[in-house]
Amino acid sequence: MAAMSRIDDLTERVERLLLRHEELQRTHDLLQQQLDVTTHERDSLKARLAAARARIDALIDKLPASSPADASSTHTPDA
User: Fold this and answer.
1) Whole-number mean pLDDT of the chain?
2) What percent of the chain has pLDDT over 70?
3) What secondary structure, in 3-state letters, does the chain show?
4) CB-side exposure of 49: number of CA atoms within 13 Å?
5) Longest alpha-carbon distance in the chain
6) Region class of 64: left (phi > 0), else alpha (psi between -120 and 50), else beta
7) Residue 10 pLDDT > 80, yes or no?
8) Which of 3, 28, 27, 6 shows the shortest CA–CA distance to 14?
9) Amino acid 65: pLDDT
10) How far is CA 22 from the centre of its chain?
11) Could you give the CA distance from residue 56 to residue 58 in angstroms, rounded to a whole number?
């Protein structure tokens, strides 16, 4: 009779472990989905940042070059 009790206890523990494993697997799957979404969002933001930098660099290149005399006339010396 004690052997049957031990087998029943062991069976119950195994069933609980299987349930816990399934819960953890579902949690892992949800976390993986969140990571995928976040990774995609990060990559999209990096691409947008690179495009914005390229536009800013293009605008800077279009600015007229200032001569040293222009720079000195706009610079106020420290008193």
Assistant:
1) 90
2) 84
3) CHHHHHHHHHHHHHHHHHHHHHHHHHHHHHHHHHHHHHHHHHHHHHHHHHHHHHHHHHHHHHCCCCCHHHHHHHCCCCC
4) 6
5) 104
6) beta
7) yes
8) 6
9) 86
10) 27
11) 5
Hey, what's the torsion of the CAs at 17, 18, 19, 22, to 10 degrees? 120
C-alpha distances out from residue 71 to 50, 62, 64, 77, Å: 30, 18, 12, 12
pLDDT of 2: 82
What whole-number distance in Å separates Cα of residue 27 and Cα of residue 16? 16
3-state helix, strand, coil in the chain (%, to 5): 85, 0, 15
| Global pTM value | 0.62
Instruction: Point out the least confidently predicted range of 4-8, 15-19, 21-25, 58-62.
Output: 4-8
